[in-house]
Design brief:
Family: Belongs to the peptidase M20A family. ArgE subfamily.
Number of strands: 17
GO molecular function, one term: metal ion binding
Largest sheet: 6 strands, mixed
Number of helices: 9
Strand order of the largest sheet: 1-2-6-3-7-16
Strand content: 15-25%
GO biological process, one term: L-arginine biosynthetic process
Keywords: Amino-acid biosynthesis, Arginine biosynthesis, Cobalt, Cytoplasm, Hydrolase, Metal-binding, Zinc
Shape: elongated
CATH superfamily of the largest domain: Zn peptidases
Number of domains: 2
Helix content: 25-40%
Protein name: Acetylornithine deacetylase
CATH topology of the largest domain: Aminopeptidase
């Protein structure tokens, strides 16, 4: 078979696998086991070993599979990492979001670029890895619920630590147009619940309005947001250069003439560094516990304010020397480094000593949108990178 025909077959296989992956409706928070089993079956047929980790309900699954090196040369293993979940779809799609559709040079479907395109490429290339004389392990790491504050990856990371897998090079295949991303802010998501005392609106002094106390809580967050701006590092590489804070929603109340007994606030912060996250949480918790809650309990002793951590995604820090970035640069010839505003699982791998880079096919501009797509040529670029990894990982 000619090299050209072989490349065409590899590309066609990646499209076929991507089509299959899109058909699995792996919306965040829902069962992703069918997709994980599909991936596991492909890799096991190639001789890979694997293990799975689960959420408490055993319906959401992480997969970590390994094609072992045939000749050990003490080279750091490569981890090819992607999340299997996708964001929900809204009305307005030109075609079924869970049926891959090719129009001109683009493949449409939910998750096509974020980030099932990368996973498809790794699975399409896996047979070549399995037949190669590898002198380093190739790992495949597929997680659940990255889109909802990285709920799956921390469970996987704990298992990696138990298994002493704390070294290596990790490529997170988020859509970056195959450009190297070596830093991003953290992303901490919270929901704060307020429980007050319902009553008739004509006697507000006899009730405790959860909505009013939630509003004061939001105002305090906005005040703290301004303080975060003043804490921006002088040499910040981010835009904006400071830690941000956003109120995602305030939900409470049932009628105009009823004192609201329940309310909750969804909010998030994207800290430049951990210290900002610590500062913010300490200040808002102090305000809630020392100012708001005592006032509420004067009227209703069982009033409460509870903050739930939805997820705390650690930031991804730029490093002067990065084995992961240097490897990708050597394969692509592109020495540039960029930062992004969105969060990834990169910081979690970096935190346990694994050199990490974010680099994958597709554009973040298409992610989370109606008619999400990936340009087909991006799949070819990703396959070329995986080929470079193979050539860097085989015995001479």
């Amino acid at each position: 078979m000619s090299t050209e025909n072989s490349s065409d077959q590899l590309f066609n296989n990646s499209v076929k696998i991507l089509t299959d992956l899109i058909s699995f409706k792996t919306i965040s928070g829902e069962d992703n086991s069918s997709l994980i089993n599909y991936c596991d079956e492909i890799l096991k047929k190639l001789g890979a070993t694997s293990f799975k980790t689960y959420d408490d309900e055993k319906k959401r699954v992480n997969l970590f599979a390994t094609l072992k090196a045939k000749n050990s040369n003490n080279k750091k293993p490569i981890i090819l990492s992607g999340h299997t979940d996708v964001v929900p779809v809204s009305k307005g799609w030109s075609s079924d979001p869970f049926t891959a559709t090719i129009r001109e040079d683009k493949l449409y479907g939910r998750g096509s670029c974020d980030m099932k395109g990368f996973i498809a490429c790794t699975l399409a290339y896996a047979p070549i890895y399995s037949k190669s004389n590898l002198d380093r392990d190739i790992h495949f790491s597929f997680t659940f619920d990255e889109e909802t504050a990285c709920q799956g990856a921390p469970i996987l990371i704990e298992e990696l630590k138990k298994r002493e897998i704390k070294d290596g090079i990790c490529v997170i295949g988020e859509p970056t147009n195959m450009k190297i991303i070596d830093a991003h802010k953290g992303c901490y998501e919270y929901t704060t619940y307020f429980k007050g005392l319902a009553g008739h609106s004509s006697a507000p002094h006899k009730g405790v309005s959860a909505v009013e106390y939630a509003s004061r809580y939001v105002n305090k967050l906005i005040e703290l947001r301004e303080k975060l701006k003043s804490r921006a590092p002088k040499d910040s590489i981010f835009d904006p250069p400071y830690s941000t804070l956003s109120i995602g929603g305030v939900f409470g109340g049932i009628a105009h003439n009823v004192i609201a007994d329940k309310c909750h606030v969804n909010w998030e912060t994207r800290p430049v560094d951990k210290d900002d996250g610590v500062f913010l949480n300490q200040e808002i918790d102090k305000y809630a516990n020392e100012v708001l809650l005592p006032e509420m309990k004067k009227i209703f002793p069982t009033a409460s304010i509870e903050k739930d951590i939805i997820g705390e995604i650690v930031g991804f820090d730029r490093q002067d020397k990065s084995d992961a970035c240097e490897l990708i640069s050597s394969l692509t010839g592109d020495n540039s480094r960029q930062v992004v505003s969105f969060g990834t699982e990169a910081g979690l791998f970096q935190e346990i000593g694994i050199s990490t880079v974010v680099c994958g096919p597709g554009s973040i501009e298409q992610a989370h949108k109606i008619d999400e797509f990936i340009v087909l040529d991006e799949l070819k670029k990703c396959l070329a990178l995986l080929d470079g990894i193979k050539n860097n990982s085989i015995s001479n």
